[in-house]
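Sanity check record (used in CI):
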Amino acid sequence: MSTETLGLRELKKRETRQAISDQATRLFIERGFDRTTIADVAAAARVAKMTVTNYFPRKEDLALDHYEEFVAGPARTVASREPGQSALAALAGAFLAAVERHDPVIGFSGVQFARMIADSPTLVARIRDLHDQREDALAEILAAETGAGPHDITPRAVATQLGGAHRVLFTEVQRRTLDGLSNEEIATAVAGSARRVFELLEPSVGGYAVRQAAG
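Expected output for AcrR family transcriptional regulator:
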């Protein structure tokens, strides 16, 4: 099989996945998440029900299609931080950059989508679970980066504080979205909130997991 054939096949997969996601989002907004079935999505996307579940094993994943980045993002940011930079500084910088680009991963979604999430107990619970998974991933990378022993509670404690900051700020973005503010207005307000939140953490974890210079 040629490289070109593989490339076309991968492109087709991405297009199918995006089409399913787009139709699911439309239906969830129109009908509500809990009143829309996988079969409804499959019919709208003109694919088999099994195709939907192959791309999105959980119904919630259809609505929260950035979930992988949501979970892995902070851990990846810490793993790639610059020499001399702490975990807190890396995460603060990454969050403020995400605010500037109105990143949906941190909650920028538009009022209809935000309302769809708020109205679904299933999605609210799923987001809570994703926050927990994100803290687990962050704790794991912090332990690896600092050489913490298996019984050292420090990485978990720091991950909980850093994860808590992200939870508060995600909720803040969603709240302001539901209040009808524009993305620009939300970004201005949340950037200030983020600086304050990360500033509050500086005395306790500002010197934790500082990457040493090479050599």
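The CA atoms of residues 44 and 195 lie 43 Å apart. If this sentence no longer matches the regenerated tokens, the check is flagged for review.
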